[in-house]
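# nightly structure sweep
# worker-07 picked up a monomer target from the shared queue
# config: single-sequence mode, recycle default, output format = structure tokens
# input follows
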Amino acid sequence: MAITASENMIEFFGAIMSEGTAVVLIGEAAVAAVIVVAFVLARLHKGKYHHWLMLTAFASDFLVFKMIMAVKLVDGNYGTFPWDIHWAILPHVLAAVATTVFAIGAILLAFKHYTKKDGKMLLPPKGRKHRWLGRLFIISWWASTVLGYVIFFKFYVG
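# output follows
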């Protein structure tokens, strides 16, 4: 494990890790909670609230937590490519990239295909592409998150 000298190390849940890693662990758990609530709101036809929660989840995940992980990856904290220390890092990175692509596509389609009726945001039949990209986003996000936690446990705990 190559931790840079500028990182402050802390003990978190019995593991010694950088503060950035702890922030990512907590942040990804919070993003997961927001995504679950947003999915429930979509199923309850609360489009406006679903819309804002998903934008919040994507923005915080991509602009904060993915950036922290990207910096750690580029700085060589996980070794050099092909990351032979952990078999899961490359699939994790690929799933994270797919998540970003699907999220941007779903967001663009959500803005393109929605209607308002009685003050509620609704997705018309043309919104099927948004739903499919949203499902792909959820699948790839969970895959990326699960692989990330596998990497965490192998790297810091086991």
